Known about the structure:
Blueprint (H helix, E strand, L loop, with lengths): L4 H28 L5 H13 L22 E2 L4 E2 H10 L11
Helix pairs in contact: 1-2
Amino acid sequence: MYETFRDRLTGKERKAFAKNEKNRFVLKSIQRLVDLPRFVRMENTSLLDKVKRNSSSVRIKNRCLITDRQRGMISKQKLSRLQFRRMSRTGVLNGLRQSSW
C-alpha cells in the first residue's frame, strides 16, 4: 500500500510524541503542582510553550488502514466502522457473528 501525505503526517506526529513524551509529562506535572511558587510555575509554562505542538498526544489521529478514514474508528482492528461491517459480512474477520435478539 502506498504512503499518503496523511500517513506521513501522522507518522511524524507519532515520532514527535514518542520523542517528547517524558519531557512534556514532567513539565505538565510541575505546572499542576499548586504547592510550588507561582513564578516557578510561570517559568515552567514558558518551557512548555517551547515544546513542539505536534508532540502532543491530542494531535495523533487514528485512521483506517484501508480507506484512510478518520471517523468511526474501531481501534482494536484499526478499521473504520464501514470497512469493519463490510469485512465481517463477507467473512474476512474471524470470530464475529451477527447479533440477533
